[in-house]
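Look over this record as teaching material.
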Amino acid sequence: MLGVLCLGCGALLARAAATTIRAPLMLPCGFAVVIVASSLATAHSATASFASPLVVGLAVAGLCFLPRRRPGRDTCISVAVGVTTFLLYGAPVLLSGDPTFAGYVKLDDTATFLAFADHVLDNGRDLSALGPSSYEATLAVYFASGYPLGAILPLGVGARLVGTDPAWVWQPMISFAAALLAMTLYALATQLVPSRSLRALVALVGAESALLYGYALWGGTKEVAAATLLALTAATLTHAVRGGPREVLVPATVFAAFIGVLSVGGVAWLVVPGVALLIAPGTRRLGRAVAFCGFTAVLTLPALAEAGAFLSDDNVSTLRSTEELGNLVRPLRLRQLLGVWPTGDFRIDPEHNGLTAGLVVVAFTGLALGVAFAWRRRSWPVLILASTAAVGVTVFFVAGSPWLAGKALAIASPVALFLAACGYATLLTGRRTRVALVLGGLLVAGVVWSNVLAYQGVWLAPYDQLKELEQIGNRFAGRGPALMTEYQPYGVRHFLRRLDAEGASDLRRRPVRLARGAVLPKGEYADLDEFDLSELSTSYRLLVLRRSPVASRPPAAYELVLRGRWYDVWQRTDDANPPLHLPLGGALDRLGTVDCLALERAAARVGSGGALVTPTPTVGVVGGIDGPLPRGWAQAGAGSGIVLPSSSGKVSISISVPAEGVYGVWVGGSFRGRLSVSLDGRSVGSSSPHVDRAGMWARVGDVPLAEGAHSVTVLLERDLLHPGSSNGVFYLGPVALAQEPDGALQRHDPSSPQSLCGTRLDWVEAQLP
């Protein structure tokens, strides 16, 4: 869908500018039009809903002007390069078998970007129609800072036209932008690399920069879109230099799209191409300059309108702070600009320092050759692109935070790698064939090695779990407000937005305090019994709770209305004053022993006519994973029952259950590989690779058990061909066997509380008459 829209919009841009856009640049130019058109439409809430119809209308009009001729060889090859790049960027998701997305847990910005895609195409930046929620609070914070939305708008338009939730087309959107980058690089390589096959290889290698690929695998849609538009800026300058004032509409549109993606801070990247365009020789220089400035000013109006907020003192101080790392673990290395970095996570240094240093030298040598050959052949677009990348990286390294400098490196890294590939490709056509083959081969091998490791280290979102949240959001829309006690930004900021949902450890508007008065820190999880339940019961009609073998049942005022594989939904049925609630369980056991003195005090407060209420007790037993452990496995901490597996392996533990019954088999933590569980030699079930946050559990299956001890065997099989299978550190364990709680309640006479003394229960509530 985006391909068709960009093709039509690119043809319309060529018609409006009275020029011919080269075939490899038609889709990238159309992409710029989609960004600019949707940005203009969403600049005001009254016109925001017309963004998608506007883009479709422009595309349809442009398709009518599309030349009716067979595509040439350059067109076919550039499309093949784009499709190959699309498949390589999309490989982790495509080969997982699910329409999921990358970067889960590692970076939660994608949840915020999905919130943008949900809201902006209907309401622009207007939040007046939203109720208090984590969704509304997140949008308010980002909109107040003038956050640029250009990279998100094509996602929203495309997702609506195909009738799919934006989350399930997030990775295709990023891969599509990368494909346009490769097509643009193919066009730029024309003057340097005459051979079409070599030109295709150069463009493909340049687009596969390890740093940009790594950003794409944690949701870096802005970085990929900006890298594409940066290359397109240089590629379209010839339309302004060789033609009249009307033809500057092409680079002006690309400039405006670039500003729409990065806001006014992106001007630093456009100084070199802007000056080059304005001082280029020609008989109509003044008219060209006036037309360019006029077109650019009009098309960047949405970004200019938000410039004040974006350049506010607080925002600028954050963007310039040397302490602002964002989700980086340290500032990135300048040498990562060269596009070769063989490690599964670009935020850390590679293990093979010597090999990495050698590959960096090879890439730098190729870069120097590429610049030299571009200068010799007077390839001005390539030289302008190189200068633009150099200036942009320098500015943000000197004046920006490490977080901002990292983004600059990612945006510019395809340029450096492209020039290196051009250097060896040009050398290959001369007399130094063997040297070019060896060094160029090493460069390609380094890029492939780097991206294979990134592929193996990717963190994919659990599709079935998030799909269940999407279904809950649709089914219970308008029945909130709702609360989630786990840190699940994709739930509260996106899938449950129509429930006015809030996360206890996310941005929120309502007070969600713990019983001790503190607020749960960002990213943390707490059992429901740890919260101030009087506050909770009066604020939230729905509870969307992650299923767990050790979690407490919600207070008696809530009843179970939906049980899924991953989530339970509880709805408040009693609006009376909150009762006295006595929690009893612990961290790994939902049941605890009733304290007689506390129970008698509670019963005395109830008096006659009231009741003591308890959930029906269910049996659950937790067993820690301990030695002997397979080779490569380590304990996460003494007595924790949690291990850190770095390879395939099998471990057996013994767990004793106190009563006969059907038990669910649960495994805590995450597992990078297929996890299979057997009990007493019988297979219980298995689960595909699953990344999760601390304190969460995955249900593997159910099995009937007799009273007594049982042997539980956990087998982890890691397939290096599967995305996300690398040796990254993650927590696995403990293991739990737990009966399914039915949510039923029991009422007891408060006049004889002794019957409950010493029993093991989840909690006791003293309800007033």
